[in-house]
Amino acid sequence: MAPHTEQLTRPAVRLRGLTRSFEGRTVLDGVDLDLPAGQFTALLGHSGSGKSTLLRAIAGIDHGVAGSGTLTAPERVSVVFQDSRLLPWRRILPNVLLGLDGKDAGERGRAALAEVGLGGRERAWPSELSGGEQQRAALARSLVREPELLLADEPFGALDALTRIKMHALLRQLWERHRPSVLLVTHDVDEAIVLADRVLVLEDGRIGLDLTVDRDGPDAHRAYRGRLLKALGVSEDAP
């Protein structure tokens, strides 16, 4: 189910002229980008192309981009990383509620854990959870803050193939339920097509391809895969 048309007319993120360099090498070169409210967008690119740098800039945690462009983003932003970043000395519920105040915080945290399939695991230690369960807890920690924008930096990259499939279904389900804007950084073309309604390819410091995904039709996935691999300079026959 795609976001309502009227919702997509409102930009959640508006980025103009963003530039970022590291030791004289320009990684982002005047990037312009609009992310409509409620849209699920995936960002592809080669290693070192600046995908994570762009995500961190939008999250406001890369101060090196200050003054290099204009950025408008929602007030409530959550970030999910490849590492769940759970504090090993805190149980799962306190991890989910980290930095969250309010009388109903505990209730909200339990509801978020139940939503990601971890109901009843509130008092577990992070070390007692599998990798997939730890990422579920990380998702709960993000969603309990009711973000308008969810930024995900290869959150499933360290998981095995079967767990990744389950996490794909979970993330898509949570997005359909809560409707935040999502920007997913990934190196996996198939993951981008399965999850996102729009796929961007970052090339030479700018958006080289902006592709809207419509999953109707028996050969839709194959067609999109071919276009994205071509944009990435990869042959479909490559292993």
Written account of the structure:
Residues 13-229 form the ABC transporter domain. This protein has 239 residues and is of the alpha/beta class. It is built from 8 helices and 9 strands. The protein has helices at 5-8, 51-59, 92-96, 105-115, 131-143, 161-178, 189-195, 220-231, and strands spanning 11-22, 25-36, 40-44, 70-72, 77-80, 149-153, 181-185, 198-203, 206-212. The strands form 2 sheets. The protein has a 6-stranded mixed β-sheet with strand order 5-6-7-3-8-9, with helices on both faces. Strands 2-1-4 form a 3-stranded antiparallel β-sheet, covered by helices on one side. The longest helix has 18 residues, at 161-178. The protein is globular. The two termini are 32 Å apart. The model is unreliable at 1-6 (pLDDT under 50).
What are the defining features of this structure?
disordered N terminus; Rossmann fold; six-stranded mixed beta sheet; three-stranded antiparallel beta sheet; globular; alpha/beta; 9 strands; 239 residues; ABC transporter ATPase like fold; 8 helices; 2 domains
In short:
The protein folds into 2 domains: 12-76 and 147-233, 3-Layer(aba) Sandwich (Rossmann fold), CATH 3.40.50; 84-146, ABC transporter ATPase  like domain (ABC transporter ATPase like fold, Up-down Bundle), CATH 1.20.1580.
